[in-house]
Design a protein that fits this description.
Elements lengths: L7 E4 L3 H13 L3 E5 L15 H4 L1 E4 L2 E6 L2 H9 L3 E5 L12 E4 L16 E5 L4 E2 L5 E3 L10 E2 L2 E2 L18 E3 L4 E5 L6 E2 L4 E5 L2 E4 L4 E6 L3 E3 L4 E6 L12 H21 L1
Parallel strand pairs: 1-2, 1-6, 2-5, 4-5, 6-7, 7-9
Antiparallel strand pairs: 3-4, 8-11, 9-10, 12-19, 13-15, 13-18, 14-17, 15-16, 17-19
Length: 266
């Protein structure tokens, strides 16, 4: 079976989406990533979405490059690179994708339909296998993380971030107001609880705990409630620049779904 004949389109280039991209590309599938003009990824060192602003970005040796057209995207994907195309909508492509994966983690189905490709996969809450898509990958931490569901929905969104190092809600920093976000710290920097990370206009943005800054939203205009930073209480600086265990598990689930579908089709 020639995996190179099966184009995979991944909608979103954030943390978990990058885990999916890594698994698929390393298995030999051509992959095309679709992103927003201003991505909302905060773990930027390990997100292929960083290529939107940087032009090119490497994650664990895999090169993601920004492209400007669907034709260029297809050419780069078939050459073994990971093209990132700014396209909030699913674009028309010279080659119809075999697989579409919605990895935007919007906690709801925005516009994905089960007819978008022969195999459609959704990550996490908001998707129901058999209705919105063919398969759902569980994204909630726990025994079912990365599980492929061929029927029914993923676990519902609890609104509480998963526990990391014994901390959940306090590790995630959200915008308290709208305004211009600027940072005074960098990803990989150790901080103390209550320490200022930056500001929104003149309102300080503070860390909720001691740890290492694992993610920061790019500076710019933000809205209230938007996730803008992540502080890891485990304090492992090197982990800030590595794909997470959760991303690898979810990526493995997506790869399993694609391989299962191909096996059933033969």
């Amino acid at each position: 079976m020639l995996f190179g004949e099966h184009l995979n389109v991944v909608r979103g280039g954030g943390d978990l989406a990058t885990g999916v991209v890594l698994r698929l590309r390393r298995a030999g599938f051509p992959v095309l990533v679709l992103e927003l003009p201003q991505p909302l990824s905060i773990r930027r060192p390990v997100c292929v979405s960083t290529a939107v602003s940087a032009g090119a970005h490497q994650v664990e040796g895999l090169e993601a490059i920004r492209v400007e057209s669907a034709e260029q995207a297809l050419e780069e994907a078939n050459a073994g690179r990971v093209p990132v195309l700014v396209s909030p909508l699913l674009p028309g492509l010279p080659q119809r994708p075999s697989v579409v994966i919605d990895a935007r983690l919007a906690k709801r189905n925005v516009d994905t339909t089960i007819d978008d490709a022969p195999l459609v996969i959704g990550l996490g809450p908001g998707f129901t296998a058999g209705i919105d898509c063919d398969a759902v990958i569980e994204t909630m931490r726990g025994h079912h993380l990365g599980k492929v569901l061929w029927e029914g929905p993923a676990a519902p969104d609890t609104g509480v971030p998963g526990s990391v190092g014994g901390e959940s809600g306090s590790r995630v920093v959200r915008a308290a107001r709208s305004g211009a976000l600027t940072w005074t710290v960098e990803i990989g920097q150790l901080v103390a609880g209550g320490e200022s990370l930056g500001q929104i206009d003149r309102t300080p943005v503070e860390s909720g705990l001691d740890g290492v800054v694992r993610g920061l939203l790019p500076e710019g205009i933000v809205s209230p409630g938007l996730k803008i930073a992540d502080v890891d209480p485990r304090g492992d600086v090197s982990a800030c620049f590595e794909v997470s265990d959760k991303s690898r598990a979810v990526g493995g689930g997506a790869l399993e779904a694609v391989l299962t579908w191909l096996d059933r089709a033969t």
